Amino acid sequence: SAPTTPASCAPGGEAANGYQTVDQIVAPIFERDPTLGAITAWDLGRASFEAPSEHTLDALRVASDLGNVDAAARYGDWLVFGEVAVDHELGLAYLTDAAQRGQSTAFTSIGNFYLGQPENTALAYENLIAGLRLGDTDAGVWLADYSLLAATSGTARGSREAEMRVLDICHQDAAKCTEV
User: Fold this and answer.
1) pLDDT digits (tens, 9 = 90+) for 33-61
2) 130 near 103, Cβ under 8 Å?
3) How do residues 23-35 score in pLDDT, each as one tens digit?
């Protein structure tokens, strides 16, 4: 059952640059399917470095609470890594629920969260491996970063070298990207 459109979903004006906002672009999708609209708005916003609107976050929360695993992973990710209302405990609960139901990016987000905690590197590694095995290629980048962190005592976190290393591994043998 699709969630109802949250009250905060009324399309607003133009973005500061004169272009449409992500919510305006996906408004027709929201009208037909609020869950798909929220997921699409989230993905487009991430690709364009636009923070999700309250409208999108409300719709993701509603869809998550109704059992949509993809919405739960995205909402949990925002709660853990968002710029405004960070709530690690609640975000990890949403991510854990999505991961337990097989959502690959949820594993990757959990692993990414634990990467920054030296006492939890084993949890980081286990979750990143699970995300990669389920097909999330971003987990491969974080795993390469994890390997460089171990080799360089943390100086390579988020580095271009980590991205290049995993790309090199995947180009040499694509099976290694899913059979880690």
Assistant:
1) 888 878 888 777 766 667 777 878 888 88
2) no
3) 788 788 878 888 8
| Nearest-angstrom CA–CA distance, 170 and 49 | 26
Q: What is the pTM of this model?
A: 0.67
d(Cα 13, Cα 24) in Å, to the nearest integer?
8
Burial class (CB in 10 A: 0-12, 13-18, 19+), 2: middle
Q: Return d(Cα 48, Cα 20) in angstroms, integer.
A: 12
Q: Which residue has the tokens 């995947």?
A: 170
CB 107 within 8 A of CB 128: yes
CA–CA distance, 64 with 71 (Å, rounded to integer): 5
* 92-100 LR contacts (CB < 8 Å, sep 24+): 94/64, 97/69, 97/72, 98/69, 98/70, 98/72, 98/73, 99/73, 99/127, 99/130
Reduced to 3 states, what is the DSSP secondary structure of residue 68?
coil
